[in-house]
Amino acid sequence: MMKTLLGGMSPRQFLEEYWQKKPLLVRQAVPGFTGVVSRDELFDLACDADVESRYVRYLPDTPGSDWVLERGPQTRGRLRGKRQPWTVLVQGLNLWSPAGDALLHQFDFIPQARLDDLMVSYAVDGGGVGPHFDNYDVFLLQGIGKRRWQIADQEDRSLVEDAPLRILKNFEPAHDWVLEPGDMLYLPPHWAHNGTAIGECTTYSIGFRSPTAQELGAEFLGWMQERICLNGMYADPDLTLQENSAEIGPKMIDQIENMLSGIRWSRKDVTDFVGEYLTEPKAHIFFDPPENPLSRKRFETAVNKHGYALDARTLLLWSETGFYLNGEPVEFDPTDRAPLADLAHRRKLEPGQALSAGFLDLLHQWHEDGFGHPSSDHA
Fold first, then answer.
1. What positions does the domain JmjC occupy (predicted)?
2. CATH fold for domain 11-208
């Protein structure tokens, strides 16, 4: 992490004093920063069907339809409009730009299990997405141009009805700042904020995962469905005549309750679920195996010479019980735990690093699957 990122503050101090507690404005968090992609590169991504993007236009003179939302892929014609304020947002920039991926991982003083993605927004003068709040933490890093940020810690979170975006109906800003290139604003969850472009500008948003209890519960029960084994079947040899045949009798409920009481889970079950759930690629992410994969021998030579790097789309996390890659548990030799943990943390291995034959076999399989590659492949 660069020393200026938190205004000279240590990550420990930031976590203790600001994380999920209060906003932080950092002037020149990244000195000289103007972005990681050009405007044309950003527009190309927005027009790509494989990239998630949104186009938002504000129509102040159109009663009842002030906001317009268009999901991607975008068109170049749409991105040349100048009549009304508009902005285009591209999600997952870290998946398409090595520099974007490097920027995202400047923030890994927050556990990678919480890190979501890097979003970039481009706006013309007056463009923005309106006053809103997020359910997650976010760092807002200014690229080119200037953006005015108004924020508030307000209890009123009522929304404009029938709007295509979650626009706050009664936004009452308490703080007002203009961010210039390299400035950054951190906001905890649920802080209302409104960003408005002052001239042409770009803003890079580092967002974090914050699943709801309902989402976790539903996903866990689905995960457990494939792992539980309940023996026996419903039977009622002592069935007695009911007065009303439509009644679900208490004895039936008792028996089914007893059968379901056999469902159990352990801490390891929860840990494995969390590891697989948090590394599961998003629905729109696919991996491309190399057209000409290296043989095992040539692969080992390349890794020894150049090192190894995980693909930007790959998620590798570990816990007290194991390692998890792209939604699956990793089978590995316990003696390889240290280099595997190092790879998960730094997302790369250095040239000449001592690696066992079994570990190289694992890396070679990931190379064939498109999950990683010798570093020079994508330099």
1. 99-225
2. Jelly Rolls (2.60.120)
